[in-house]
Homoserine dehydrogenase
Amino acid sequence: MKSFHVGLIGLGNVGYRVWHNLLTHRELLAKKSGKEIEIKKIAVRSVEKALKQGVPPGILTTDWKEIVNDPDLDAIVELIGGIDVPYEIITEALKKGKEVVTANKALLAFHGQQIASLASSYKRRILFEASVAGGIPLLQAIQDGLVANRFLMISGIVNATCNYILTEMTNGRMSYADALKKAKELGYAEADETLDVSGEDSAHKAAILCALSYRFWPKVEEIYTSGIQSVDPFDIQYAGELGYVFKLLAIIKKHQDSKEVEIRVHPTLLRKDHILSSVSGSFNAVIIKGDIVGDQLFYGRGAGGDPTASAVLSDLVELARYPHMEYNPRLFFADEQTEYKVMPISEIISRYYLRLNVVDKPGVLAAIAEILGKKNIGISSVVQPEVSSFSQGVPLIIMVHDAKEKYFKEACFEISRLPFLKGEPIVYRVEDFHVQ
Ligand SMILES: NC(=O)C1=CN([C@@H]2O[C@H](COP(=O)(O)OP(=O)(O)OC[C@H]3O[C@@H](n4cnc5c(N)ncnc54)[C@H](O)[C@@H]3O)[C@@H](O)[C@H]2O)C=CC1
Ligand SMILES: N[C@@H](CC=O)C(=O)O
Ligand code: NA
C-alpha cells in the first residue's frame, strides 16, 4: 500500500488528539483512504511535554520550517492557532507543493481569499473542515451534499464556549466566570478566550460560511459582532419567564433577488420550543435553508480535542484518497468572487426585546408606546416584573414586532432621553429565522 506522509505543526488540544487518533485508527483509515497515512514529523513548542505525551523523540522538532521544507511530506496540518505565523507556514507550504489542512478560522477569516488564490495558483488544496462547528461535517455538506442548492440562510450556534456558558447560566448552575473557566479546562475555548466571548470566533466562522455559500469573503470588520460578556443573568431570567432562551447565534441570510447578505453575530432570544433552544453545552447546531432541499439541521460537538480531530482526519483522508488534483473543487471560486456585499446592520429587520429601567409612575408606558408608534413599531407584549425595592426604578420589558433596526435604534435613543428613564435601554434581537 502507498503511503501518505504528513507533518503536524502544533500538539495542543487538537493536535495531540489528531496524532493519537491517527495511531489508534491507522488500519481503518488505511482501508478507507487506500493509503498508509503517517505523521512523519511534529513541530512543537516543548519537546519535553511531547515526550511526556508519548510521542517518540525521533519525529519531534521545534522548528516548523523543517516540516515545510521536508520534501518527503505530502501534506502539512497547521494546528497552532494565531494568524501571522500560521499564515507564513501555510503560504510557504503551498509554495513548496504541499497540501494543507488547518482548523484555523481566524486565519481563514482574515486571509482566506489570498490563501485560496495562492493554493489555486500552486495547484494545491487547502481543507479546513475543523474550522467551523468542530466535528460536524458542515463544510463538506455545504460543498458536496448540498452542492446543487442556492442558500437562503445558514444560521446557528457555532461557538461551543459561549453555548456552554449560556447553558450553565440559564440552568443557574454556574456563574459566567465559573463556566468560562470550565470551558477552558475542557479544551473548548481559544488560547485567547476573549475571541470566544466577544463573538469574534463566531464571526470568523460566519465569514468562512459566507465564503463557501455565497462565494465572497466578507471583511471581518463588516460583520456586526456582539458577544456574551455583558449578558445579564436578569435578562436570562426575564427572557425565560417570557418563553425565550439566550443563544449566541451567527446569522447569515440572503434575501431573494438581493445582492446583499445579512451576516451578524449576537446574543439572541429564541423561543423555548425552537429546535436550536435545546442545543446545550458544547454542542453546535446550524440550520441551512437551501432553495432545493429546504431546511436542514446539522448538530454535533462543536469543539474539544476529539471532535475537532475527527474533522482534521477527514480532511487528511480526502487528500490521501484523491492525490494530485489540479484544483480544489471545494474552493472553485478561489480566483473569482461574486459581487455580493454585506448588508449594513441598520438595514436588517428583526424583532426585539427591550428592557428599560423606569421610575414607577403613571404615563410611563404611554410615552414609550407613543415613541415606538411614531416609528411604526408594534408592541407584541409588555411585562413589568415585580421587584422588592423601587428606589433604583423598576424593570419594564417590551417585546416588539418586526422593525427595521435603524428605526428601532432611533426610537431607543428617544426613549433613553425620557426623564423617567434610569440607565440605558437594554436591547436584544429575537430571531425566528424568517427569510423573504
Ligand atoms: N480546541 C478546539 O475545540 C478547536 C480548536 N480549533 C482551532 O485549532 C487550532 C488549535 O487549537 P488548540 O489545539 O485548542 O490550541 P492549543 O493552544 O491547545 O494548541 C496549540 C499548540 O500549538 C503550539 N504552538 C504554538 N506555536 C507554535 C509553533 N510556532 N511551533 C510549534 N508549536 C506551536 C502550542 O505550544 C500549543 O501546544 C486553533 O487554530 C483553534 O482555533 C478549531 C476548532 C475547535
Ligand atoms: N473556541 C471554539 C473552538 C471551536 O471552534 C469554540 O468554543 O467553539
Ligand atoms: Na466542521
User: Anything to note?
Assistant: The mean pLDDT is 96. The two ends are 53 Å apart (CA to CA). The chain has three domains: 2-136+306-331, 139-301, 348-430. The pocket of LTNE7NMQ (ligand 2) is lined by residues 134, 159-161, 188-190, 196, 201, 302-303 (CB under 6 Å).
